[in-house]
Amino acid sequence: MRGRPSTARPEEAMLIAEADVGAAAPEGAAVAEGRASAGPRETDGELPTLLAPERLAAAEATYQRVVAEFTLEFRLASALAYVRTYASPRVARLLHHTGHVQHAATERAVDTALFVYELVHHGVDSPQGREVVRRLNAMHHRWSIPNDDSLWVLGTFAVLGPRTIDTLGWRRLTDDERQACADWWREVGTRMGITGIPETHAELADLFRAYEVAHLRPTAEGRALLEASWDVMTSDLPAPLRPVSRLLAAALTDEPARSALGLAHVGAPTRTAFRLALVSRGLLSRTRGTSVPGWFTPGAPLGPYPDGYTLDDLGVGEHHRHPATAVVRRPRPHSRT
After folding, report:
1. H or E, element range at 223
2. Contact indicator for 308, 301 with CB cutoff of 8 Å
């Protein structure tokens, strides 16, 4: 997992980004700051844990290998999951309320991407991993968040990631690999105070599906968020694909999320064509020995951080509380995490 210097543009970082975990307020209620309802909180600086150390280490090693082996699929899954969260009315309501997407789309995408990069690269129990979780908790625990919303958003990592790899990758994941992915995100979710996380990948997938059937539907907030995000999310696609980016997203998004997002219905031949093209690209890359591009360099210059960044720059700050206000950043010639 030690990478070469990152050359990713801000838009490329978007492809690994995910929507804020559990960002939702109770449906039909006013959005308000306060204690999260998702579950355990930090106590005396200690985070709740789930897995035995040896099981976490094994799951983490497997998950890191899967991410490195299926880099394209992981990025694509994360991009699709990013917009999928807008299909939940409660999640969309809070995301729209914060204004981050509308007023700072690129910065929000890059910061979220970097949190994920840092967490996967360094590991959950590393100092960097613990700091990432602490900062995520500081952002999300400001809001009253239903636990089922948090569980569903966790599923966009633990369920959609493996599903996308199985659909588009050069091979399907093994059952052990799927469970390792689930275990790793179960540990992250537990440390973020999410409760009632199913033990197996299959049970988590069933819960994810049940939430979607019960809750996903179109909203004005979801449509506004999708429009605000689209250019950032698709700007690093090859020029010929940009005009059909919505068609591609529709082809790779299942129901009921597709209808809730207002994406067009795509017939089976078009869906098959897109999937075959992506699978072929993955096979070709593997044949050429280029299936694992440069991974990630912590602290490297990226997007809104031309002089590099530290974890202190990400996520929690005045620009996140008041996204319409411009932020002036002091240069950091040698900033590193």
Report:
1. helix 220-234
2. yes
pLDDT score, position 92? 96
Question: How many angstroms separate the CA atoms of 246 and 264, rounded?
Answer: 8
Q: Nearest-CA neighbor of 157 among 136, 193, 185?
A: 185
d(CA 161, CA 197): 17
Find the helix or strand (DSSP H, E) in which 129 lies: helix 127-140
Are the CB atoms for 158 and 186 separated by under 8 Å?
yes
Q: Does residue 241 contact residue 248 with C-beta atoms inside 8 Å?
A: yes
Distance CA 220, CA 266 (A): 22
Is residue 279 exposed (0-12), middle (13-18) or buried (19+ Cβ within 10 Å)? Answer: middle
CA distance 78 to 92: 17
Look up the pTM and report it. 0.78
Stretches in the chain below the pLDDT threshold 70: 1-45, 236-238, 240, 280-295, 316-337
**Residue 305 forms beta bridges with which residues?**
302
> So what's the pLDDT on residue 85?
94
